[in-house]
Amino acid sequence: MHEYIAEPYDVLYFRGNKSFHFGEWYSEGVFPPLPSTFQGFVRTKMLDDMGWLDSSGIVTKPSGDIAKEVGNDESLPFEITGPFLGNDNDIYFSNPRDLFRATQAGHTTICQSVLNSLHNDTESDLDFTFSCAQMPDGKLDKILPPAFISLNELVQYREKMEFCISTKEELLFTEDRVGIGLDKEKKGLKNRQVQTSRFYVTPYNRLGDGVGLYFNINIKALMGGTSKLGSESHLVFARKIRGGANSLLEEKLSPQRAQLNESIFKTRTFRLLLLQPGVFGSGWMPFAFDTTSRKVIATEPKTRMQLELLSACIGEPFTVSGYSYQSNKETKKQEGVKLKPAVRAVPAGSVYLFKIVGSASDADVQELIAVLDNKKIDNQQFSNMGFNHTIVACGQDIQL
Questions:
Q1: Distance from CA of residue 230 to its chain's centroid?
Q2: Is residue 357 a contact partner of residue 327, using CB atoms and an 8 Å limit?
Q3: What is the domain partition of the chain in residue ranges?
Q4: Burial letters 311-344, b for 16+ CB under 10 A, else e
Q5: Using CA of residue 374, residue 398, residue 302, residue 292, what is the dihedral sign?
Q6: Nearest to residue 96, comparing CAs of 164, 167, 147, 151?
Q7: Dist CA 372 CA 391 (whole Å)
Q8: pTM of the prediction?
Q9: C-alpha span between 375 and 84 (Å, rounded)
Q10: Most buried of the four, 37, 44, 142, 277, by CB within 10 Å?
């Protein structure tokens, strides 16, 4: 396992899938970058390390050799974990969506889980019965926790429903930049022409001192050095921070598994948290499910254990796409590029509360934790990019 920090020299901007039309004055990007965006940076860095890129960044080797080393649109021959905000000592993740602020004092936020109140069935035309969890009182902007949770705080989240979270205002800053649109109708002119009064504002992201994008890969080590990242190809410096059998994330999470096993065996419930967005074959659910009993009964494919969904805080789905550069095979110019197929994704930080159906031994629970905790739910090639990364947290003693 090889762990790295990609430290930007300047601000970063990652374009989303929302079209930006005339008349709109504010353009929003995506941050942190999606795994589907970041994997391009890793693959380009690998090709550069092998000397397979010329001075213009064009690949100089046959496509078959490239696919063997760094993959293509259909496959990825290695696994990436990340990217997450991080530094040499800590990693920061999107805050779990089942946490809300209870009280606040100074720079400490006390968070509590919204999943501790499940009642009052709601009538709908869905194939299953569902209940609305009771939200804490107060305006949404006053009860939302900080945007990021540290690795040490994530360890606490796995064991309890209420704990302290720091605000982390020093991690990330927003800088608005003003741009002007181009007039594409004025053809035949050497210089690009701008359109009068077509101004817009774009928020760029600047990372705090010592903060970069953490990632790890399970293949040979990358060489330290610069490469381009983001919609405007700003430079970042990738450097190795650790190496060994286990990543920093695994070293922090593995000691808890015995305690988690005991807690889940007792309550028969557990929470499944997405550290990265999820692209699943069953849509919004991580596993295939059945609703004939008016309940959502999912089947974990590796253990074959049946799980009843008690609650879910998953947020609004979004679209993942990107450009394929395999459509132009005649010249080195990337003309005639095409879009990759668009898929719907569940946002990072989404949480599912499951109840184990039927009898399950201590060994069964231990096996379930082994296949879900700090693992990626298989959906190639998305899981190898870094999507579908999950961890397990304790459940609740709920009588339903």
A1: 16
A2: no
A3: 1-87+210-245
A4: bbbbbebeebebeeeeeeeeeeeeeeeeeeeeee
A5: negative
A6: 147
A7: 6
A8: 0.89
A9: 15
A10: 277
